[in-house]
Amino acid sequence: MGKLDSLYARMPVWAQHGAVSAFGLYWYWQRFGAGYQKSLDRYLHRDRLKPEEWGTWQMAALKESLGAAADHVAYYREHWSESEKKAALAGQLRDLPLLEKDPIRANARDFLRQDLNLRKPLVFYTSGSTGTPIASLWTAAELRDSMAVREARSARWAGVSFRLPRATFSGRLVEPDPMSKGPFYRFNYVEQQAYFSAFHLRADTARFYLEAMRKHGIQWLTGYAVSYYLLAKFILEEKLSVPPLKAIITTSEKVTPEMRQVMEAAYKCRVYEEYSTVENVLFASECERGKLHVSPDIGAVEILRPDGTPCDPGEVGEVVTTSLMHYSQPFIRYRLGDLAAWDGEPCRCGRGMPVIKEVVGRIEDVVTGPDGRQLVRFHGIFINQPHVREGQIIQEALDRIRVKIVPTEGFNEADIADIAARVQQRLSAEVNVIVEPVTEIPRTKSGKFQAVISLLGKNRNANPK
Ligand SMILES: [Zn+2]
User: Fold this and answer.
1) C-alpha of residue 222 to centroid of ligand 1, in Å
2) I need a labelling partner for 275 at 20 to 30 A (CA). Which of 63, 158, 365, 432 fits?
């Protein structure tokens, strides 16, 4: 725990609300201060660009950014060949090598644009569910841009705004005491934002989260998809009443159709998905027609086959992205580790931004069969399992899968046999399946839920070069 965190942990609750608000005031100024409105206007103005206009826009932005990287970023100056530097100056993205996470982990400052003379960049860390976190370094202007694009393309598309009271589930240390009897949130009066603790959400605490929403007039919810899904299950199981809400914008984990259905039934409002990363190298948000549009002014996104060629629409491949909005620390052809597919059809909302058909999962979420088959989205085995509150799949060996279950009342031998059969059906009858009922499934350090964990070697996947 850092010094500030341990100071916060010793404060009484009223002082914690105050500290959160003081902290909120500082961040409000950083995020919505001078320049925010102009930035918002720019994003709103680009909302209706046609695909050709986006193409021209992105080509010009890439040329500038890649050229600056070749000239002013230590890492690329050192690692790119002369011909690659030439390609960069000409804006030819596809002739440049892919970028792994390790060199950024080793020295994030090597990726800063030296011509910008950034003395004190803001630092944000990736959650690091696999390996050491990456330090993402930003200017205050970039932070404001990132808020403006969220307002323009997440909040407004969902019919809400950062000006309306909202609640957020995130990895923040909100309630330092794991045994706390509540409250399980702190309120930032500056932004009218309740920070919910993802770590204290249980069947017996669910109603306190709803009371907090009611007390503070919360109108929309944002943050960890799995936390909202879990709260939704508690709402339905315990028949709790929910204050009127306008929308939920989920981040972090992928929303499955089943999760969406449960959440919309519980909260009685629409769920919109946002797909983004801490590094802000990519941004995609859901429009009113339910399609996930990629913002071409945030990052140039490619979906690639194992041999490095671009995938056709509908074909699942690895997501590789080049940061454009976050230009001070440019990550070029950065391997995010996500698997996704393009949608070839234009969206009926009329926007010209490309559409991702689906984000299938993370490369590390892949489960491998004894015959070498690789399966994504394996947690689909929990669909229509009425006695499973949460489930996690851990691949311990090619022929051994452990399934951790948080059961609800009525869970019995038949459920265990059904789960084991579903795993074997997908992989092979030779696979040994251990179904283990547990009281809870631990979250990662940042409070995220991992549906699938593979303990097999890291380099089993296709590595495009
Ligand atoms: Zn659309």
Assistant:
1) 20
2) 63
